[in-house]
Every structure is written in C-alpha cells, then in structure tokens.
Amino acid sequence: MENIVILDCGSQFTQLIARRIRELGVHSEILPWDADAARIRTSRPVGVVISGGPQSVTDPDAPNIDDSVFSLGVPVLGICYGMQLMTRRFGGFVESGSSREYGRMRIGMTGTQSRLTEGLPDSFEVWMSHGDHIGRLPDAFDLLAETERRVPAVMMDERRRLYGLQFHPEVAHTQHGTELLSNFLFRICGCKGDWDLGNWVEGMIREISSTVGDGRVLCALSGGVDSTVAAVLTSKAVGDRLECVFVDNGLLRLREAESVLEGYGRLDLNVRFSDASDRFLSALEGVADPERKRKIIGETFIRVFEAEAASVEGAGWLLQGTLYPDIIESGHKGKSASVIKSHHNVGGLPEKMNFRVLEPLRDLFKDEVRKIGALLGVPEAILTRKPFPGPGLAVRCLGEITPERLEVLRKADAICTEELSRWEGYASVWQAFCVLLPVRTVGVMGDSRTYSEAAVLRAVESADGMTADWVRIPYDYLDRIARRICNEVPGINRVALDITSKPPATIEWE
Ligand code: XMP
Q: Are 4 and 47 in contact (CB under 8 A)?
C-alpha cells in the first residue's frame, strides 16, 4: 500500500493534511515529529510531509526533525513550519517575527517551472498563518512563488526532491491547495492513488480472521457509528463468535433502547440486551455532583459488562471502535509523549478483565468509518446519528436524578429533536438537546400559578466537539419548541436558550 508519512510538528491542521491526502486516494499516516528514520522506514513511505507547528524554528526547544529524514530517498514536502525547518537545515535563513502574515494572501509565480506547481495559474490566494518567514533560501533551492510583500511562498530543490510551502494547502481557503497536494503525490512521489475503502474492508476482514483465529470476541455496542461499524465488520470475519452487548443504563432518550435494538435486528448481529436501568438509577440516587455521577456510571458499567462477559465462555477479545484521532501520537511539547484520549465508556475494561483488544478502525477517520458503514449496509440512521455522551441524560439532568425528572427531560428532549429535524439546517447541527435545571420558577397556566422546573435548549455546531458555537436556530422553530414543551410536558414551565460557545462553556452542562 502506498503510504505518505506526515511528521506532526504540532499544527492544528495535521489531521486535515492526512485527510486531504487520503481523499486523493493515497493512504497517509501521522507520526510524531521526533520519529527517527528507522521508525519512518517501517511505514515504507513513498513521500514525507513535515507539518506546520505553533512554535518558531528559532526557539531552542522547538520540534526539530531527525536529519536522516532527508536521506530516506523519498520526496519531502515541508508545510509552513516544515518549510522553515528545511530552510535552516540546508543553510538558508529564517527571520523571526518581523513580517507576520495571517489569513488570506495573494501569491505570484516567479516563472520557474516545477512539477509541484504544474497546471497552476500565475497568481492565486492562499491561507497563511505564520510569524516567521524565510529571509534567504538555501543555496540549492529555487524560488517558485512569493507573496506581494516578497516573502518566499513556494520553494524547491528539484534534484533532491525537497519542496516547501509557506502556506497551508490543506485548508479550504487556499485556492489550488488540492492541486498542489495532488502534484506532490502523483507527479513527484509517483503515487497511483489506489487507496480504496472497499479494498480496505476486504483486507481488514482477512486480518481480523487471522488475528482472532477461532477465538471469541466481545463488544459493547452503544448504538453509535463507531461501535456499530466495528461490530458489523468483525462479524463478517468471525460470524457468530462475535457476541455484542447493548446496555440500557436507564439514561437513554425516549424509546432509544427499542429503536437501537430494532436497528441492530436488521444487521444480523448477535446482540444481547442488558437492561441495567434499575442498577444505575439506584447507584445514582441522591447524587447531584457531576463528577460523582460520571464515576458511578463508569464503575457500574464495568460491573454490568463484567457480569455479561462472564456468561460468554472463552471470550478472549474485546472489540472497540477506537478511531485514528483517538490514538494519534503527537509530538507536542513533551517530545514523544503520546496523547491518548481515554474512552469514556469502556475505559478500564481491558486492564481489569484480561482481554486482548481488537481495534479494527484505529487507522480511520470518522468520515471514512461512515463510508465503510455504508459499504457494509449499516442503516443511514445509525451512520448519521449525532454524538450522545456515554453517561447519557445524567449529565443533562442537573441536580439529583430521579425517574420522574428523567421522564420530564425525555419528553422535552424528544420535542426538541422532533421539531428541529423538520428544519433544513438540522443536518449540519453537531448536537441539539434539552437540559433540565433543578431550578423552579413561577409561571401561569390557565388561571393557576405554576411552580416548575426550567429547561434549557442547547444546540451547537462543531467539527469535532473540541470547540463549538451555538446554532442560530430560526425564531419560528424556537418558538414552537418552547410552546410545545410548556404545553405538553408537565414539570416544565419555562424554556431558555443557551447561547454560549465552547470555550468558555462545554457542550454538555456537566
Ligand atoms: P463537552 O461537554 O466536553 O463534550 O464539550 C464534547 C463532546 O463529547 C461528548 N461527551 C461525551 N461522550 N462520554 C461520551 O461518549 C462522555 O462521558 C462524554 N462527555 C461529553 C459530548 O456530547 C460532546 O459531543
């Protein structure tokens, strides 16, 4: 398989570079900036990209890549910080701070021909984000393009197949960014572009088969995209030696357990339903502190899952829907420190239970998982499902959780979803839901006074859940949601709208 290695110097766009390359049909892999040549060789790259980064190459502890990367015999493309590292390495000069360029800039070609810029117009707009810039190119390099302020924007040493871009070809604001990446892949690295998810699926099914042998696999399904796609894929390899468990923790939304099970029913999966609602709700009784709620839910989940696992004889493997962004090792700061997101819901299971972990999706991005899901026949409703937190309604039912308050929240939340799903903008909403506050306010209904709790509507748009902005839902929809909740849900007499972004707020209220 053709592979491009991306050395991550800490840019917020590193994952985007990887995705763009994959979209062009070439597999890409992100390694920390301090990966040495031996590590890089094991990935057998046909080209290397050095990413951007937030630091200045002139800082003594800024990331600096291993010199031997330039002797691997494959083309190297430095982007922004990567270009500056290359410049210093080959004897050029990087100026710090004096000419900051952020945002949209126009660059013009110098007229020197190259395979990197083949087919591009003489001048176009790119997206810059740098405080440092190249003051003098290394001797062997040619200047291919510069900004209006004469800052070098594109350079190359064609003989050694080294290329540098001062701007970000991976972001949508850069015109012709895809052509630049495509020229690097196809004209310079000689890629064929045969990375294809259909082939990947076949290869992965074979791999799971040979890894698991005749063992049994256990999987905790959540109803979401990742665990479902992982399970369907694995079932193609091991058939009914895959045992799935779907736990109802009593904190699911209105009719959610039924609809998830119905979806699984159509997928030919071996799913056992574990209704542990009572166990979770009694463990949560009287608890209002958000962290304690989460801890109790996590621990109860482990206990319920352990009990289920004990009844599956000989299960030696635990299947998890870990994705690439969850495991990417990143070179930020503490050198090769690897940043691993802990799994909210099944974290702690493997260590405690002596399972070997199977993570077939660990190499994929979310959109690739959705495409694979579609290839495997996973219903659209599951593939487009919006994220729902593992601790469920517990983190949206503020204060003490009681079955009655959960019921009130479920009804309000269902109205919110029902109304918003009629709105054309709903597809691009990341999450929209109701929060129930442990705050009672005075109202009037008919001729009588009410004194009931307040609900808050939270709707956000986001690319990855890390940052988010509140969604400008049209007033008519807000109006209908508020009216219906107050009319149809006894227990709520007031609806407020959350207009805070993340940061400073988080998406969930707890
Ligand atoms: P916050 O509230 O931290 O949420 O801004 C970011 C995203 O993560 C989801 N979330 C969770 N998902 N288990 C999960 O599976 C959890 O414990 C959890 N907490 C938050 C949240 O819904 C949002 O999409």
A: yes
pLDDT in tens, 454-475: 999 999 998 878 888 999 999 9
* Cβ contact 27:71 at 8 Å: no
pLDDT (average), residues 409-433: 97
- Map out the domains of the chain with their CATH numbers: 3-188 (3.40.50.880), 197-383 (3.40.50.620), 396-497 (3.30.300.10)
Give the bridge partners for 59, in sequence order.
none
Using the mean position of ligand 1's atoms as its centre, give its distance from the Cα of residue 266 in Å: 28
Enter the tokens of residue 296.
């109790």
User: Residue 344's pLDDT is what?
Assistant: 43
Measure the N-to-C terminal CA separation of the chain; round to a whole number of Å: 44
Whether residue 331 has its Cβ less than 6 Å from ligand 1: no
Residues catalogued as catalytic: 80, 168, 170
Rounded to whole angstroms, the Cα distance separating 273 from 220 reads 10
Using a cut of 0.70, tell me whether the model's pTM lies above it: yes
**Ligand 1: residue whose CA is nearest its atom 7:** 465
Residues 221/265, Cβ–Cβ less than 8 Å: no
**Could you identify the atom of ligand 1 that is nearest to the CA of residue 509?**
2
Distance 390 CA to ligand 1 centre (A): 8
Of 176, 151, 168, 2, the closest CA to residue 77 belongs to 168
Whole-number pLDDT of residue 338: 34
pLDDT at 317 exceeding the cut of 50: yes
User: Is 432 touching ligand 1 by the criterion CB < 6 Å?
Assistant: no
pLDDT reported for residue 104: 87
Would you say 339 and 332 are in contact if contact means Cβ atoms under 8 Å apart? yes
Nearest CA to 509 out of 365, 393, 369 is that of 393
Q: Is the pLDDT of residue 182 over 70?
A: yes
